[in-house]
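Progress against Task 2.4 (sequence-to-structure conversion) is shown through the following example record, which the project officer requested during the mid-term review.
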Amino acid sequence: MRGGFKLIVRASRIEGSVRAPPSKSYTHRALFAALLAEGRSVVENPLIAGDTEATINAVRAMGARVERVEQGLAVEGVGSPRWPGSIYAAGSATTLRIAMALAALVEEPSLLYGDDTLNRRPVKPLAEALEALGARVLTAPGGTPPVAVSGFGSKPGSKLVEVDAWISSQFLSAMLFLAAALGDLEVRALRVSSRPYVEITLRVLRGFGVEFERASSSVFRPRGRPSPSRYVVPGDWSSASFMLVAGAIAGKVRVEGIDPGDVQPDRAVVDVLRKSGATVRLGPGYVEAENTGPLEPFEADLSDSPDLAPPLAVLAAYARGRSVLRGVGRLRYKESDRLAAIVENLSRIGVDARVTCGGNCLEVLGRGEVEGGHVSGYNDHRIIMAFAVAGLASKRPIVIDRADRFRDSYPGFLDHLKSLGARVGVERFGPGEGL
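Structure tokens generated for the chain above:
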């Protein structure tokens, strides 16, 4: 087992403002759209983090030239992807799944794989959709990466494809990118989870000149092919949610650079914070959350916003009473089994939690306080950040092992916490140490 570092977070009164990092979801999609647009595009305000670096490498492997410029990233797109040979997507499922669909445009076999966390995540429904179009797709046992794709080139075996996107909306988003590249492929979604992420995909492709005719909410027909564009990435609500929950339990935090009107599903954190009794203020381009008294238990449906489960579970731990997070069954297919990780870590810091509703609900029995203790980050950026936030008001410090991976989505997370007054320490540990 590799070494790494652990975080030690002590109770702190925090106050101040931070700027939300750019959206990871938009950055991924803008880079792939720029790959498919023949000519020079500029992606302004991109997120540069572990996951998006994987996408930069993927679009380069598929023929695009990417360089840093003052405004962000300049991408010289190639229209139709070139043979990448192999693509290492690190821990980024978005990178692997969209690249997997686009690899079907290349007849030579391509290999796509990731790290240990990514190679446990399912891709079988996407593989089945590509095979229905004439591609040959080989996965590891269980329908996970590594994946080998031998494509059909520019001539799929059908003008219509169905995809089951219940496990992940990324399967549908990947097929929408493929449809945009082909120009005449109709995509039908059998089931869709987290629909707002599909809307993000459609919004980005629209920014690159591709409209989709919607015969219904589950049928998509592209109009036009991607063309070069200058695309501005908005602030990230997923990352902002951790700082807003931090303010709700341990002080007052303003997050700037986020748009309350964006389609990002994690903006739902505002409504949940209000349900919990936190004071929330919205203004032009900012949201502020403040702890102004005891927190109340709440219920929330996270079917469209599963990434909110880790920070909201921590918020529930500081409420006095039974909180319920619904629609969380798909958390088992994330970077870690997030349901198991949340329940185990909450128990380690003195909070009872359990999975109910046949695996689709998380109940947290908050006591209004957290004892503190030793938890694992599970090599999962959102678990690490959530339990770092939990330590801001705990009775004893919270120590988080395997805490390196927050950089996958929020490289400035620790710096932002410290700028707000949080007492956060970092210690190295060697192989065989830690949880």
